[in-house]
Design brief:
With about 250 residues, this protein is of the alpha/beta class. It has helices at about 15-20, 20-40, 50-60, 80-95, 105-110, 110-130, 145-160, 190-200, 215-225, 235-240, and strands at about 5-10, 45, 65-70, 95-100, 130-135, 170-175, 205-210, 230. Helices cover about 45% and strands about 15% of the residues.
Length: about 250
C-alpha cells in the first residue's frame, strides 16, 4: 500500500515549546516540506506563523504538496471571532487546509449552540475560499459516547448547512497530539476511537492524527476507512520503519 498519499507530515511545536528560535523552527518546516516533495507525501501541517514562507518554498520548487495549518490550537477555546481571524490570515498566507480545534470544552459544558456556531461559520469561510476544513474533536478528552455524539453532530450540521459536493471537504479529525492524559493513556488516534468516528461521520471523511507510529498501524487505519493520517513520523512510515515517539 502506498501510504504517502494519505499522510499529513506534521510539526506543530512552537519555538518556545522546543526551546529554539523562529529561524530554527522555519528551517525544520522547510526540511519537512522538502521531505514531502522528495517522497510524495501529500501535505505538510505547520503552525500559522510559517505558512507564507513554506507555501513560497513549495511553489518555488514547482511542487503540489499541500500546506495545512492549525486554527485555535491546541486548546480549542479561542472565540469564534478569533478562530475566524486566524483562519482568514492563514488563507491569505496561502494555506490549503485548515485544521480547526473544536471547542470541546464548550461541548462538555453542554453549550452545543456555541460549538455549532463556530463550526458553521469557520467551515463556511474555508469552503468559500476553496479550502479543506478539518475539525479536531480531541478524542482523548471525550468518552466513547461523546466521541460518537460530537462526530454525529458535525456530520448533521454539515448536511444541514452545506451541499453534497462540500461534504468531502469537511473532515472530522481525532486529536491535536498536545492533550495531556493521565496514567499513560494515549492522547492520539486509537483504533477504537477511530472506529467510533467512522461509524458516526456519515459522508464526512475522517483523519486519524497522533499515535500512528508503524506502517502496519497506518495501513490498518486506511483499511478501516481513514482518508488522512497526521503524523510527525511520515518519513519513517513510508520507509517501512517504526517510530518510538512524537506525534
Amino acid at each position: 500500500m502506498k501510504i504517502a498519499q494519505y499522510l499529513d507530515s506534521t510539526y506543530l511545536k512552537t519555538p518556545e515549546q522546543s526551546g529554539i528560535s523562529n529561524e530554527e523552527t522555519l528551517q525544520i518546516d522547510k526540511e519537512l516540506a522538502q521531505e514531502a516533495i522528495d517522497h510524495g507525501i501529500f501535505a505538510v501541517m505547520i503552525r500559522p506563523d510559517y505558512v507564507a514562507d513554506i507555501k513560497k518554498y513549495i511553489q518555488e520548487r514547482h511542487s503540489d504538496v499541500v500546506v495545512g495549518t492549525v486554527i485555535g490550537f491546541h486548546e480549542g477555546t479561542y472565540t469564534v471571532d478569533e478562530k475566524l481571524a486566524e483562519a482568514s490570515k492563514a488563507i491569505e498566507d496561502g494555506a490549503d487546509e485548515l485544521d480547526f480545534v473544536i471547542n470541546y470544552n464548550a461541548y462538555l459544558k453542554g453549550d452545543l449552540a456555541l460549538v455549532k456556531e463556530e463550526f458553521v461559520k469557520c467551515t463556511t469561510l474555508a469552503l468559500q475560499n476553496q479550502k479543506i476544513a478539518k475539525w479536531i474533536i480531541e478524542i482523548a478528552a471525550l468518552t466513547d459516547a461523546q466521541i460518537a455524539d460530537i462526530t454525529k453532530n458535525i456530520s448533521d450540521w454539515s448536511v444541514e448547512n452545506f451541499s453534497e459536493n462540500d461534504l468531502p471537504n469537511i473532515f472530522v479529525k481525532s486529536s491535536t497530539g498536545f492533550y495531556q492524559t493521565e496514567d499513560g493513556k494515549p492522547n492520539g488516534a486509537t483504533f477504537e476511537g477511530i472506529k467510533i468516528m467512522l461509524d458516526n461521520a456519515g459522508k464526512l471523511p475522517v483523519k486519524a492524527a497522533g499515535g500512528v507510529r508503524t506502517p502496519e498501524d497506518a495501513e490498518k487505519m486506511i483499511s478501516m476507512g481513514v482518508k488522512r493520517i497526521g503524523t510527525s513520523s511520515a518519513l519513517n512510515l513510508i520507509k517501512n520503519e517504526s517510530s518510538s515517539g512524537g506525534y
